[in-house]
Description:
This protein has seven helices and twelve strands. By secondary structure, it is an alpha/beta fold. The protein folds into two domains: 2-78, no CATH class; 84-261, Metalloproteases ("zincins"), catalytic domain (Zincin-like, 2-Layer Sandwich), CATH 3.30.2010.10. Helix 5 (205-219) crosses helix 6 (229-238). The longest helix is centred in the middle third of the chain and has 30 residues, at 135-164. It starts with a helix and ends in a 6-residue tail after the last strand. The model has no long low-confidence stretch (mean pLDDT 90). Zinc ion binds next to helix 5.
Amino acid sequence: xxxxxxxxxxxxxxxxxxxxxxxxxxxxxxxxxxxxxxxxxxxxxxxxxxxxxxxxxxxxxxxxxxxxxxxxxxxxxxxxxxxxxxxxxxxxxxxxxxxxxxxxxxxxxxxxxxxxxxxxxxxxxxxxxxxxxxxxxxxxxxxxxxxxxxxxxxxxxxxxxxxxxxxxxxxxxxxxxxxxxxxxxxxxxxxxxxxxxxxxxxxxxxxxxxxxxxxxxxxxxxxxxxxxxxxxxxxxxxxxxxxxxxxxxxxxxxxxxxxxxxxxxxx
Length: 267
Ligand SMILES: [Zn+2]
């Protein structure tokens, strides 16, 4: 029954043309009592409809919200940053970032080692990478470089914090790895381990440090909820402006390189 109504109303909305050019879904919500409208990141419109709302009322509601929809969809699509894509192609020079510094990536034929070594030449920092034949391997090799260097940096930077946060006697282990698309860091109670997401290391050190300290404070196991008042108080004591950093991270995070390599002809 409910899905029939949903279909009927969706079809009526479609015919009305009010939302032409928009991406939307109409959802019947059995527990709702009033009509609702949300814009998801990227501009998708969700119309929440209580079970007893007549179709003409739904259409009127959306008609009345037309201006609001237009403004807010524009806002949410303007903020939509897309992850960076690297070429990693022969002869193509491009910059990659580590702790906010740019490195000119150079595929080096002479190098046979599987390591990537940064060096300075003519005022430019180069990141020499062995010219691995398989194109997909190049991306993976760069990612392992971030993981290795990131782990090293985080372990060094954590040392003074472990003392300050009184974790030194029972220090958590610290690792950099791939944490998927939703997290910059995680503290795993089981194993007493802090894990950081490798793309983070493209950002300036104050942002990486914010994530590191965020997780180290979870590792102190403050009472209360994970991001509750106790955790927040310890966070503010450690980094007074952490909320600004969180905001900056949210703004800059979505456009980082997360492993995408442009398709190219392999021979
Ligand atoms: Zn957290």
